[in-house]
Amino acid sequence: TQEQTDIALVYQLPPVEVVKMLGSDAQRGLSPDEAARRLEQYGRNELESEPPIPAWRRFLAQFQSPLVILLLIATVISFIVWLIERESALPFEAIAIFAIVLLNAILGYIQEARAEKAVAALKAMSAAQATVIRGGERREVPAAEIVPGDILLIEEGDTIAADARLLQVTGLQAAEASLTGESLPVTKDVGPIAEKVGVGDRRNMVFSGTAATYGRGRAIVTTTGMKTEMGHVAGMLQQAEETVTPLQEEINRVGNLLGRAVVVIAVVIIATILITQGVSSISAVVDVLILGVSLAVAAVPEGLATILTVVLALGVQRMAKRNAIIRKLAAVETLGSASVIATDKTGTLTKNEMTVRTAISASGRVDFSGIGYSPEGEMTSNGQPVTDEALRVEVEKTLRASGLANNAVVQQHDGKWAIQGDPTEGALLVAAMKAGLEPEAEEGRFARVGEVPFSSERKMMSTVHADAEKPERVVVYAKGAPDVLLARCSHERLGEGVRPLTPERREEIQSAIDQLASEALRTLGIAFRTLPKTEVPIANGVATTTADGAANGVADGKNGSQAGASQNLNEADLERDFVFLGLVGMIDPPRPEAKDSVHKAHSAGIRVMMVTGDHPRTAAAIATELGIIKPGERAVAGAELEGMDEEQLRATVKDVSVYARVSPEHKLRIVKALKRNGEVVAMTGDGVNDAPALKTADIGVAMGITGTDVSKEAADMVLTDDNFASIVAAVEEGRAIFANIRKFLRYLLSSNIGEVLTMFFGVILAGVIGLVAGEGELIVLPLLATQILWINLATDAGPALAVGIDPADPGVMDRPPRARDSRIIDGRMWFGIFFVGAVMAVGTLLVLDGTLPGGLIDGSGSLDHARSMAFTTLVFFQLFNVF
User: Fold this and answer.
1) Among candidates 184, 203, 216, which has minimal Cα distance to 423?
2) Which stretches does DSSP call E strand in 431-472?
3) Which of 240, 498, 786, 870 has the highest count of CB atoms within 10 angstroms of its CB?
4) Helix axes 797-804, 304-321, angle to 10 degrees
5) Banded pLDDT at 280 (limits 50, 70, 90)
6) Is 716 exposed, middle or buried (0-12, 13-18, 19+ CB in 10 A)?
7) Tens digit of each residue's pLDDT (9 = 90 or more) over 481-535
């Protein structure tokens, strides 16, 4: 059964035993009837996904904030007061407050819906069809109908439909970055692996959702759907808990605080009036209760929730212009409070485009500038243009050979350069173009007539070419692991000539190999030999050649002219007596703007960490180059993490900033350890393997171009340009938004406190300031409830919104991030809010007193005139306050 064929066991078994265990046939595959039965038994080869949230539930979710709930309660209370008093034709205050709440919900819903549409537009990865052998026939079937035991045929460019154990390979390589984070294609073989290894080192397996970049193979499907490695990650993703952002926590806290404050205000006002005014009748008590509740409602800043939503929505629009799609509004501010950015390497800090950095030949070393697949860059030696003619000739011949022993194609579409085929081979072609060579011209002279494909056993590939200028000979070009290739060489190129390879020179070349490896460069050796056309070693069935371009991984349109020139080559006789040309060192280089962005993050007090599935040496080299770590600082590998308990991991993440060869579980543990240490974590990633950590982090940032659907769904933010620099720009935007939120909170709360204190002390000190009740009146108010509502509607929203969209302060990125437990409204700010509110109240009541007869300041105005004066004074106080 599928449960018995556990992946941990399958890669340790010989292929024959795996086929037998799965009850299949390596040549004929499953019968159609058996495949149908297994489809019924195991289910469709699809990942389970959480059902989409209905639109009505997403809309109702906008009403969950304590602040919004407080406003809804205020609406109900206002409506009840209107029902009792009936002072107006309609409950205008209740209608106004509810309209504000509704507007807030609509704005939030629209923004989230827009973000979902934008993310949906970026989706693009899944294997729709797969090629299998069923009943002895080759068939194209929907990937969802693949079952355990199916024999899967894999060709270059295919997306793998399910996890499978390889049975046969011909130079097969697979890109597994989306699952493991490994930046280079993984070379596959079929031999069993004795020891227990991680997913990234299971060379005899292929995995659902990855892609074949070179060669071909045949495999037996072992697991499908949620039982695959990708399904395992999807299961972890569903278990990951949604986190509440610091902004959401703080706004909820402010809402709860305001709710308690409203109750206290109502109780204090009612108790004070009952005690000081000597209220005795039931009707008078009811009037006092209504007054107390009305004043408490006036203390609630009705516009707060809406303005917060609008400010965040406008911030989202600004971020979209800076290549960031925000899926959740609160994520905007969370970025501003991030104290750690835990980033993947491949495709985020780097371009995920292999680039040749250097070439070493007998006469010295040259370096290449430029990154990626654009053939723009210079060839220099010791920082200067290459003037040594022998060195220039050697390097050109090295690059010519690497471009001919090559199945990739470099193409330009709409001004952008891209490669078709293996990224390593593409990088070699680009380097040749930088050196002034033209691949098409070289292929025109050296038409390929045969090939011994790359294999994991030989660790090299060779191609045989007819020379149009010297038709009597053929040239064999080879590239591969430097130590393997060097062992097959007897001479080396020196300028225009050749010389024997001495033991001393072999040691020097080995030292150069070690030097390139220490620089975390992937190293290839390049060699050639010539032999008469009549002496090409031929054997039956030894190796596959290039008669069928598709079967041998030859890209469409490349070397198409040699079709029909096929022959089986004797590799043992062909791949010997080579002339060593040189070494080529390459790497997936950092983005040019990433170093500045890392420096900017450090200046802002934000720690940048690299968490990648790549090799520790490569990860450390890139991290050092970007300034993430200092030279010599260590990188922790996933195997080391396995042995750490939670406390050890918490201590480790405080000091170590580079983690390599990590699994999805490791990423998740690292994020959780950082959060337990009190950090606000922004986690970036593009692969399926990143998704659980993206969801668990305070803010998950997915890549829009290279990112998988799973990672985009898990993220709070999606980058449309896959650029680390855009994350730092988003942090700057988030910090500016946080500063603006503090501004408008201070403005709104101090203004509302001013209104409450004006009403409270106006009633308490009515006799002192000349506010005398008329005949039949128990209490006279300094301002009418309608005037308070008008002030809230007119002076709250507009000025607060203006403050909320202030441009960023120049030094916003020169300050450290705020602590996770710090408050948006701290003690000092609360003191300022109450102080300003008190000044407003005192000033307003003095104007009221000076207008009315009697009191501290004798005036001559009527009550209506005095209220108008107090109303205008309070409005101007608030406008002065906003400035």
Assistant:
1) 184
2) 446-455, 460-467
3) 870
4) 30
5) low
6) buried
7) 999 999 999 999 999 999 999 999 999 999 999 899 888 888 999 999 999 988 8
Give strand ranges (E) for 641-725.
658-660, 681-685, 699-703, 717-719
The span from the CA of 206 to the CA of 217, in Å, is 10
- Cα angle for residues 18, 168, 158 (degrees, 5° grid): 105
Residue 843 has what pLDDT? Answer: 96
Dihedral sign, Cα of residue 318, residue 322, residue 325, residue 331: negative
**Residue 112 tokens, joined:** 């989230």
The answer for residues whose C-beta is within 8 angstroms of residue 568's C-beta and 6 or more apart is: 538, 539, 540, 541, 542, 543, 544, 545
Give the burial class of 743: count Cβ atoms within 10 A of its Cβ; 0-12 exposed, 13-18 middle, 19 or more buried. middle
Q: What pLDDT, on the 0 to 100 scale, is given for residue 49?
A: 60
Look at residues 247, 171, 883 and name the one whose alpha carbon lies nearest to residue 550: 171
pLDDT exceeds cutoff 90 at 383: no
Dihedral sign from CA coordinates of 94, 100, 101, 105: positive
Query: What is the length of the chain?
Result: 883
The half-sphere exposure of 637 on its side-chain side, counting CA atoms within 13 A, is 10
What are 310-324's pLDDT values in tens digits? 777 777 778 888 888
Query: Cα–Cα distance between 831 and 447 in angstroms, integer?
Result: 83
Q: How confident is the model at residue 94 (pLDDT cuts 50, 70, 90)?
A: confident
Which DSSP string do the residues of 88-106 spell out, in sequence order? SSS-HHHHHHHHHHHHHHH
Higher pLDDT, 841 or 6: 841
CB-CB contact of 335 with 690 (8 Å):
no
Residues 6+ apart with CB under 8 A from 142: 128, 129, 130
What pLDDT was estimated at residue 547? 30
For 837, left (φ over 0), alpha (ψ -120 to 50), or beta? alpha
Q: Residue 678: pLDDT above 70?
A: yes
Decide if pLDDT at 187 tops 80.
yes
Smallest Cα–Cα separation from 404: which of 446, 437, 355?
446
Q: How many CB atoms lie within 10 A of CB 705?
A: 15
Structure tokens given for 442: 């070289």
User: What are the Cα distances from residue 296, in Å, to 20, 220, 254, 279, 354?
Assistant: 77, 71, 16, 20, 65
Of 416, 300, 353, 787, nearest in space to 587 by CA: 353
Please name which of 313, 269, 316 lies closest in space to residue 295, comparing C-alpha atoms. 269
Contact 662/612 with Cβ under 8 angstroms? yes
Mean pLDDT of 6-32: 86
Residue 65 has pLDDT above 70, yes or no: no
Q: How far apart (Å, rounded) are the C-alpha atoms in residues 598 and 332? A: 20
Burial of residue 296, with CB atoms counted within 10 A of its CB: 0-12 exposed, 13-18 middle, 19 or more buried: buried
Pick from 218-227, 314-323, 763-772: least confident: 314-323
pLDDT greater at residue 709 or residue 523? 523
Sort strands 636-637 and 658-660 into parallel, antiparallel or unpaired: parallel
End-to-end Cα distance, the chain: 73
- For residues 242 and 38, what is the distance between their CA atoms, to the nearest angstrom? 36
Q: Report the distance separating Cα 681 and Cα 297, nearest Å.
A: 38
Q: Both tokens of residue 641?
A: 């993490």
User: If DSSP codes are grouped into helix, strand and coil, which group holds residue 344?
Assistant: coil
Q: Which residue has the tokens 């405080």?
A: 654
Better-predicted residue by pLDDT, 758 or 793? 758
Write out the catalytic residue numbers.
344
List b or e across 744-761, with b for residues whose CB sees 16 or more CB atoms inside 10 angstroms.
bbbbbbbbbbbbbbbbbb
CA dist 852 and 858 (Å) reads 7
Query: Which residues are registered as beta bridge partners of 590?
Result: 350
